[in-house]
Amino acid sequence: MSRAAPEAKQRFSIFYTVPTRWADNDIYGHANNVVYYAWFDTVVNRFLIEEGGMTPGVDTVVGYVVSSSCEYFAPVTYPEELELGLRVTRLGSKSVTWEIGVFSAGSDTSAALGRFTHAFVDRVTGGSAEIPAGIRRAVEALPTAP
Amino acid sequence: MSRAAPEAKQRFSIFYTVPTRWADNDIYGHANNVVYYAWFDTVVNRFLIEEGGMTPGVDTVVGYVVSSSCEYFAPVTYPEELELGLRVTRLGSKSVTWEIGVFSAGSDTSAALGRFTHAFVDRVTGGSAEIPAGIRRAVEALPTAP
Amino acid sequence: MSRAAPEAKQRFSIFYTVPTRWADNDIYGHANNVVYYAWFDTVVNRFLIEEGGMTPGVDTVVGYVVSSSCEYFAPVTYPEELELGLRVTRLGSKSVTWEIGVFSAGSDTSAALGRFTHAFVDRVTGGSAEIPAGIRRAVEALPTAP
Amino acid sequence: MSRAAPEAKQRFSIFYTVPTRWADNDIYGHANNVVYYAWFDTVVNRFLIEEGGMTPGVDTVVGYVVSSSCEYFAPVTYPEELELGLRVTRLGSKSVTWEIGVFSAGSDTSAALGRFTHAFVDRVTGGSAEIPAGIRRAVEALPTAP
Question: Which chain A residues have a beta carbon less than 8 Å from that of B45?
Answer without folding.
Answer: 22, 78-79
